[in-house]
Amino acid sequence: MARFLVVTSRMSGASLFGAITEAFLIRGWDRVQAKRRASAIVLTASLLLGGSMALAPAASAVGSSACRFDSPDVNFKVRTSGATFRTGPGKRYHVIGTLYRGDSFRYYCRTGGLKDFRKSWSYGKLLKRSHSGIPAGTKGWVYSKYLD
Known about the structure:
Helix content is 22%, strand content 24%. By secondary structure, it is an alpha+beta fold. A four-stranded antiparallel sheet has the order 1-4-5-6, with no helix packed on it. Strands 2-3 form a two-stranded antiparallel sheet. α1 packs across α2.
């Protein structure tokens, strides 16, 4: 029995995405693999047909909105090698790069309160190009216990 995917010009991006995802699931693909492939197809089709798609902002858009404790700008040095520099406060955010001992970090705020510095995430920017090559001025998050 043949199955067909009917696409009309009146379909929204979300319904097209759902239809394509279901088609891949019927073929026996796992859900994550099907969603990834469907996303790529919907984006490609939209762009090829002259449409446009609103792309989600980068996770770095989290910025200082996640902060619970603001501080006057303070400069820190990274006190360990291998500290992960991320787009948001937590391990679920993308990795921008790795910071190494001596990298300069301008601290703006953090997720924890006054007593929680070592258990919080700090938001700020790099003052100089990092040892791993991340450009000066790049904003991001680092786990506070790695700052000195």
